[in-house]
Each structure stands twice: as structure tokens, then as C-alpha cells.
Design brief:
Strand order of the largest sheet: 3-4-2-1-5
CATH topology of the largest domain: Beta Polymerase, domain 2
Strand content: 5-15%
CATH architecture of the largest domain: 2-Layer Sandwich
Radius of gyration: 20 Å
Structural class: alpha+beta
Helix content: 40-55%
Mean pLDDT: 93
Order of helices and strands: HEEHEEHHEHHHHHHH
Number of helices: 11
Length: about 260
């Protein structure tokens, strides 16, 4: 499958006249929660030719889209962001983007732009924004059917991600097992979560499962995280100048 993904990325470069700077796996495969039938969710960052950016309309306005989305077949889903959009989201510590950057499954990274962003992350990481994002994701899923295995994962994973940020003041690992092993002590809750993971990997979305302990843990921890988030001050660092320079250098190096 890796060869098919890389061939598809090369075709996108050719037909769209872009350079792909980074491509990774997102979703259940990146979280190490995939079943045999799980899709490949490929996410990538690209840059256009210089002329594309030299116009009176900014990228992302009107017909000049800054997003590429294309399902390929039944099991491959690709989505990409233009570098200008990427850097604006990086400036805000967008958690979806940061999860891409922390993926352990990388299909392409021919340019230093992503590693430069990673070096900047400790100085621009917005702890409060990320915790509030994960709180919102978890609470949204708490209102859904707790017997659905995927929904339970989408409750628990953001809770643990937010808890990691609270404890470590850094962006959490994407791998779900690392979050569990680090943040959940041995006991009944750990056993329930381990069983949940096992069900998820079988592809059984509605297995007979008692979600009581997980739901209670999530609700209790969300209250604590919400209280903690309110004590955090907004980040005042503005990396715009550095990100502008990163964009210019990457644009030059990509097409020189």
C-alpha cells in the first residue's frame, strides 16, 4: 500500500503542479488502533509554484483553494493543506496539524520545512488552545452512543491527550498505547481500556462492552481539565515573522 500511496502523491504533484513537502498517516493507523478494514488516511502539506502566490487574491480566497481533498478508491483517503494555510494553523497550535507532525508513519518528507516547524514548536505551543480543543471533542462524543466502540475511543483519546498536555506541557504522542501506558494506572479502568482497544482492532464497532468506568472517568477528568484550562493565560508569542521567512525560504528552495 505504501507504494500506491507514494505513486498517488507523485501524481498529485504532477497534475496539480505542486511540491509535496510532507505526507503522513493520520487517524486509526497513526493511533495504532487500526483493524484489517481500516482506511488509509493520508494527510500532506504542499506548496505551489511562486506565481500562484503573486496575485491580488490571497491563497484560500475564491478559486484559489488552500485545501486538497480526494478519496481514492474504497480504502484510501487523501487530504492536503497548502503551506500558507499550514503555517497559519501552526501559529495557532492547531491540534489536527500537530497530530500530523507527530505521526509515526511518514510517507514523504523531502524538505526541511517540517523539521524547522518542529524546532519552533516548544516556543509557540499553545497549551490552553489544545486542551480546550480536546475537551470539546471529548464532550461532543460523550453526548453520543457509548456502546459504539469508535465513539468510546473518540471520548477517551482526547481526554488522555489533554491530560498529557496538562502534565507535560507538550503535545501528546499520537500513539494511543503510549497515552494509556503513561497516564492510566494498572487496575480495572486500564483493563477496560485494553479490552476496548482489542475490540477496536477487530473492527467490531458494536461489541458487547460495559462503558461505565470509561464514561465516568472521562466525565470526571473533563471537569478537572476544564478547571485547569481556566487558570492558563493566553499565549502571547507571535511567530509570524519567523513563519513568513520559513515560507519564503521553502518556496525558493522548492522551485529553484
Amino acid at each position: 500500500m505504501k507504494e500506491e500511496i507514494q505513486a498517488t502523491l507523485s501524481l498529485i504533484e504532477e497534475t496539480k503542479k505542486v511540491k509535496i513537502l510532507y505526507a503522513c498517516e493520520a487517524g486509526s493507523r497513526a493511533w495504532d488502533l487500526a483493524s484489517d478494514t481500516s482506511d488509509y488516511d493520508v494527510r500532506f502539506i504542499y506548496i505551489h509554484q511562486p506565481e500562484y502566490y503573486l496575485s491580488i487574491d490571497p491563497v484560500g480566497i475564491g478559486k484559489k483553494r488552500d485545501v486538497f481533498e480526494k478519496p481514492i478508491g474504497n480504502s484510501l483517503d487523501l487530504s492536503g493543506w497548502d503551506l500558507t494555510k499550514t503555517l497559519r494553523l501552526f501559529r495557532k497550535s492547531n491540534p489536527s496539524l500537530l497530530e500530523w507532525l507527530h505521526s509515526d508513519i511518514i510517507y514523504s518528507q523531502p524538505n526541511h520545512a517540517i523539521s524547522d516547524m518542529e524546532k519552533m514548536l516548544p516556543d509557540v505551543f499553545n497549551q490552553k488552545a489544545c486542551i480546550l480543543h480536546y475537551i470539546n471533542v471529548a464532550r461532543t462524543n460523550l453526548r453520543k452512543n457509548h456502546k459504539d466502540i469508535k465513539i468510546l475511543i473518540n471520548i477517551l483519546r482526547p481526554v488522555l491527550a489533554a491530560e498529557w498536555i496538562r502534565q507535560h506541557n507538550s503535545f501528546p504522542p499520537v500513539n494511543f498505547k503510549i497515552l494509556i501506558d503513561t497516564l492510566v494506572p494498572e487496575g480495572e479502568l486500564f483493563q477496560d481500556i485494553s479490552q476496548l482497544v482489542a475490540y477496536k482492532k477487530t473492527g467490531n464497532k458494536a461489541a458487547p462492552f460495559d462503558s461505565t468506568k470509561i464514561s465516568e472517568f472521562a466525565s470526571e477528568r473533563l471537569e478537572q481539565l476544564d478547571t485547569y484550562a481556566k487558570t492558563l493565560q493566553p499565549l502571547t508569542t507571535d511567530p509570524t515573522d519567523e513563519l513568513n521567512q520559513l515560507f519564503r525560504v521553502t518556496l525558493h528552495e522548492s522551485w529553484s
